[in-house]
Task: structure prediction
Amino acid sequence: MRFEGRISRRSWWSVMVSATALLYTSEAWADQWTDLLFPTNRHDFGVVPRGARVKHEFTMVNRSGETLTIVNLHPSCGCTSGKANARVVEPGSSAIVEAEMDTRNFVGLKSTILYVTMMTASGREIEARLGVTSHILSELVLNPGAIEFGVVSRGGNSQRELTIDRINAEGWRFTRMISGSKAISAKLVETSRNGGSVSYSLNVSIKPDAPAGSIRDELRLISNDPETPSIPVMVTGFVKGELSAAPSILALGRVESEAGVQGRFVVRASKPFVIQSIEGTGEGFSATSDQGKRSSSHIVTVAYRPEPGAVHGDLRRVFKVRTDLVGEPPLDLTATLHVAP
Result:
């Protein structure tokens, strides 16, 4: 018996029709979940400077009737990234999915998609698509594209600077600056004007009384140009407070049995304190400490034991430790692990 190595024209056509039908079915399902979970799933940043980093928060509302777990956020382009403020979204609850676009390597119109992959409680994998678009102006450049403080100590003197350069725009200027942040102060100064070229310097500092915790704000620079009426400048950082933890991220390793895994954090401060509560437990995760004991150093033990129907793959859990230190925000403890199938 001899087998031919070629597919007949009819068989080839059948394969192509089936593949096309599957593609359209998959896209239709993605559209259905996108419309169901995200009231607004597209955002246009408008005209932005080259080099700018811009962000938009999409609101996800779980109207599916079952618990959804966000397992992955992946963009169609390396210029875009995403993150969610929650991993598990119960029915009727909401979460924020943030899309961020980095415009350093592009000019003109740029559109990308952020794919949100989720698992339902019944074990189905679903996907929603969020679209972001911007028109990147080559004549207007931010350097660097955002203000990034990194980790700074509370009460310290932290300052950062960026420049804004505009060419071929005689008479162009900024008229005011808008900031709703209570943690930062900013000063915008025109540094040069030569013919159609204009330069500004933006100096940003963290206020000495800024509360401990994450800074993720946006300054708005308002100009007299209808084409670029509002220019966003992202400001990020983390103000380190009284509390600290070691390790910074606890890698629990690979989970291959029902016994699970466990590890420990050491939480410290310069003066004695009491751990009042630890949030973030559930879905197989637990966290215990010597609550009620006053000490400048505490051990927090984190454990994971897979429950029936547990999600496989890489997991990340953030626990919030609340103490009796006045004015101190909760301390985030991050644990990671991999659940083997």
